[in-house]
Amino acid sequence: MNENTPLVIANLKANKTWDEISTWLDVVAHYAEDFPGTLVLSPAFPFLSAASQKIKANGFKIKLASQDVSRFEQGAYTGEVAASQIKDLCQFAIIGHSERRQNFAESDEILSQKVLNAQNATIIPIFCVQDQSTPIAEGVEIVAYEPTFAIGSGNPDTPENAKAQAKEIKKRGAYTVIYGGSVSGQNAKSFVEKDLIDGILVATNSLDPQNFIRIIEAVSD
Ligand code: PGA
Fold it and tell me: In which pathway does it act (predicted)?
């Protein structure tokens, strides 16, 4: 991966209006200035365009990720968003989040198609796995280890286990591995370790920008 680490991603899921996202960007951008790694905001599809314009206009050191891409390249697929349509709006795409696997029945085959479409659009997939044995689609460079029990539960994995899982995942390929699941300002630092866990994926504690700033600060040194 060419990005600087730690890689810290805020996944807003289906939360926040544009006004709230705009304020979030203003607050977090100030702290992004001196952040040594890479900060990524992942808002819902409708806000990628406005967020991208705002980031460019202000020179904010924040990148964008979509929360998904269509498995279809383009065409008659009502409601879908093709990777080729957002290629100028975001650098990354979260693919295979367990909420998509569970609620939208995304199979390994579908996820492989999504990864391929993202890559064809020069969008870097952030591929979520639930444990060290989850299949990883071909061509993926960034893997997010996100055990389902830890997501939104306030019950994170132990740093020891997360590191053991990251180690196993790295044996399977030259992946950048990040951890996600109930990351907070208190525990963020315990997960990130050079050459093992290269960053974090945060949802609940990214919604309040002040909580997210605590996380950024915790992993800054
Ligand atoms: P959480 O979710 O931070 O709310 O646990 C993580 C995620 O779903 O990516």
Answer: Carbohydrate biosynthesis; gluconeogenesis; Carbohydrate degradation; glycolysis; D-glyceraldehyde 3-phosphate from glycerone phosphate: step 1/1
